[in-house]
Design goal:
single chain, 145 residues, mainly alpha, AhpD-like
Length: 145
């Protein structure tokens, strides 16, 4: 694939706005391993190899198991994930493919049952952030490290 522009160099203000969202999420208290599951699952759905590669490595550095990462795209078929994680993964998927069914009440309510309002806000913004990063990386042909 042909290299495309470097967003951070061409439009540092836009890039910094995305970093600002990441800073909010980092300071929100959201569990880092849960955040990596969100980022990896959305990236799988979006087909962003760059982000899948980055976030699976980051998750493993934080102690996430290879087995859970290997089975993430089949999370409904295994009991390796907690009820909270399952609710967050369902919300992640619904928000990522929002054009299909929007976000059903049942998905939102399940997440709200397992999360505080502050956690729910952080999860929602996490899904927004990774979908934005996926679209940037895919559009600009970001290369794997």
């Amino acid at each position: 694939m042909k290299d495309r522009m470097n967003l951070a160099k061409v439009s540092p203000e836009a890039y910094q706005a995305m970093i600002g969202l990441e800073t909010y999420i980092e300071k929100s208290g959201l569990d880092f391993k849960l955040y990596e599951l969100i980022k990896t699952r959305a990236s799988q759905i979006n087909g962003c190899a760059y982000c899948i590669n980055m976030h699976t490595r980051d998750a493993m550095k934080e102690g996430e198991s290879a087995q859970r990462l290997f089975l993430l795209d089949a999370w409904r078929e295994t009991d390796l994930y907690t009820e909270k994680e399952r609710a967050v993964l369902a919300l992640t998927e619904a928000m990522t493919v929002i054009h299909q069914n929007h976000v059903p009440d049942s998905v939102y309510e399940a997440a709200a049952t397992h999360l505080t309002e502050k956690e729910l806000a952080a999860v929602i913004m996490s899904v927004v952030a990774i979908n934005g990063w996926n679209r940037i990386a895919i559009t600009l042909h970001s290369k794997l490290d």
